[in-house]
Amino acid sequence: MVVWLPKDDEVIDFGTNFGDDQQMFNDYDEAFDTFNAVVHSAIGETFRQPKGEQPIRASLPYQYLELWIIERTTDLIK
User: Fold this and answer.
1) For residues 12 and 10, what is the distance between their CA atoms, to the nearest angstrom?
2) Domain range for residue 31?
3) In a domain, 28, yes or no
């Protein structure tokens, strides 16, 4: 998931819907490409894709852009 977060001291309520401030992807490469395209258009920089699937954060002029990794698991934790 690619998520835009405010830079100021605004409190984020993670129990609410992020609305238009997030994009969901089923593929890490696609999510990373979207993340990198937004970063490049905002600040003219590009990130190298890390080995494996890892979360990333970029500091844009008025907000942070983060790439989150969310996995669904069916295993019960004992």
Assistant:
1) 6
2) 2-67
3) yes
pTM for this one? 0.73
- Per DSSP, helices labelled H in 1-78 are 28-43
Torsion of CA 68, 69, 75, 77, to 10 degrees: -50
Kindly state the DSSP code that residue 54 receives in the 8-state scheme.
-
Per-run averaged pLDDT (10 residues), the chain, 78 residues: 76 51 86 94 92 89 88 58
Other residues' Cβ atoms within 10 Å of the Cβ of residue 60: 15
The DSSP element (H or E) to which 3 belongs, if any, is strand 2-6
What whole-number distance in Å separates Cα of residue 44 and Cα of residue 38? Answer: 9
